[in-house]
Amino acid sequence: MPNATDAAAEDAARLSRNAVDSLPRGGLADKLRLARAEGRPLRVKLGIDPTAPDIHVGHAVVLRKLREFQDAGHLVVLIVGDYTARVGDPSGRTTLRPMLSEAEIDANAATFQEQAGKILDRDPQRLEVRRNSEWLDMRMAELLGLVRTTTAAQLLERDDFAKRWSANEPISMLELLYPLLQGYDSVAVRADVELGGTDQKFNLLLGRDIQRAYGQPEQAVLTMPILVGTDGRRKMSKSLGNQIGLTDEPPDIYGKTMAIPDEAIGEYERLLLDRQPPDGGQPARSPRDAKRELARGLVSWLHSPQDAQEAERLFDRVHVEREAPEDIAEALFSSDEGMLHLPGLIAEEFGISRSEARRLIDQGGVTLGEAQLSPGEHDVAPERADGQVLKVGRRRFRRLRGA
User: Fold this and answer.
1) N- to C-terminal Cα separation, the chain
2) Contacts of 23 (CB under 8 A, 6+ apart)
3) HSE, side-chain direction, 13 A CA sphere, residue 77
4) Residue 245 carries which DSSP code?
5) Which of 134, 129, 33 is nearest to 78 (CA)?
6) Is the pLDDT of residue 176 over 90?
7) Which of 329, 312, 313 is nearest to 391 (CA)?
8) How far is CA 172 from the centre of its chain?
9) What does 112-155 look like in DSSP terms, one character per residue?
10) Crossing angle of helices 57-71/4-15, nearest 10°?
11) Do 272 and 340 share a domain, yes or no?
12) Are residues 350 and 285 in the same domain?
């Protein structure tokens, strides 16, 4: 039988699979050995600021890794950064983030916790949810003690800060505080391990320094890859419109997945479904078949296999057979107010802005009946619209009815 040292090393190798960095070398195995000797689970930390109401499958890369730790018997400490969200994480930024109101932060935090629960085990023995406002609303003497742990030179080593500094672009004192506040989170919850994306590497390592300054054992660090968006070029982000949301409807998840570039298929399979591409001894899949398999897998994971089958059937009807769905929701409009303003109707029905609706029309992304709307064709006669199917983009349909 393998000894405890070997078992810890094997477990560490398994838990760090797909990670970009596992720091320091051998650190995770050492943490596992110590936790076993003390008869306790590891405290595995993830901090996320609720700066947006929804999370997407890019976030799921780290959440899935946390679930692996839970399944191995460890405790995940999910820190909702309701206090640090007031500062705004400058990672990867060239400008100061806009400030959010407390009401926005609270609403986003509640939504995030609910959506993260689709992946994480919510058992209190496996999940501890904290808000960092519990400890970061500190007295001035405590804040000064935290600031003393780090030099300005250390902070300016961060790539984003260094680039802005060399370009003579402003860096606010608030932004310089952010890595310190995130590091103090690790002190407050006594983290054994912290996870984050590769863009968080500086912050995670600084957390080790701050723990040491407070007399605590230093956490091990795992960084996970940043998932590319559906455009295949940029980091997945709702603001860039290249995201697949965790709570998207099955047809949307399927359709968005089918739109990703062929070269991104392997990364999505590996990071989201923990699948390895077929080896050279197996028949090669066509990109189309591989993408369909990926789309079915994502819908099955986030919804159900039955939803995946129905989403694929709908996709084929709309995109392969070029037919509209059998069941289309109706949208009522007043036929007594002259011309029907389509951007307003589209915005109301599909939850997008009027400006985005106008852009879709102008780019040829909207059809009414069999006809594609022309650029600038924002208003149509009620009699032309009544009874017709309005198609917005690839997957959104409404049958228009005059009231």
Assistant:
1) 76
2) 205, 220, 221, 222, 223
3) 19
4) B
5) 129
6) no
7) 329
8) 26
9) HHHHHTTTS---TTTEEEEETHHHHS--HHHHHHHHTTS-HHHH
10) 160
11) no
12) no
CATH code for position 201: 3.40.50.620
pTM: 0.75
Does residue 301 carry a pLDDT above 50? yes
Rounded-to-integer distance, Cα 67 and Cα 61, Å = 10
Residue 144 lies in a domain: yes
Q: Is 172 found in the same domain as 37?
A: yes
Structure token pair of residue 124: 């209190």
- Give residue 75's domain range: 4-224
Residue of 76, 69, 106, 100 lying closest to 87 (CA atoms): 100
Q: What are the angstrom distances between the C-alpha of 339 and each of 201, 334, 335, 397?
A: 55, 10, 8, 20
Mean pLDDT, rounded, for 36-51: 92
Number of domains comprising the chain: 3
Q: Do 129 and 219 lie in a common domain?
A: yes
Mean pLDDT within 25-49: 95
Using CA atoms, how far apart are residues 148 and 220, in angstroms rounded to an integer?
A: 23
Q: Residue 233 domain-assigned? A: no
Residue 38, amino acid: E
Whose structure tokens read 């960095």? 21
- Please indicate, yes or no, whether residues 336 and 310 belong to a single structural domain of this protein: no
Q: Are residues 160 and 112 in the same domain?
A: yes
Q: What dihedral do alpha carbons 56, 112, 180, 213 form, nearest 10°?
A: -110
Give the model's confidence band at 298: pLDDT under 50 very low, under 70 low, under 90 confident, else very high: very high
Q: Is residue 98 a contact partner of residue 152, using CB atoms and an 8 Å limit?
A: no
Q: What is the pLDDT of residues 91-137, one digit of tens each?
A: 544 445 566 778 888 888 888 888 888 899 999 999 999 999 999 99
Pairwise CA distance, residues 109 & 243, whole Å: 19
Q: What is the DSSP string of 186-236?
A: HHHHT-SEEEEEGGGHHHHHHHHHHHHHTTPPPPEEEEEPPPB-TTSSSB-
Nearest to 303 by CA among 363, 347, 244, 353: 244
Mean pLDDT of the chain: 87
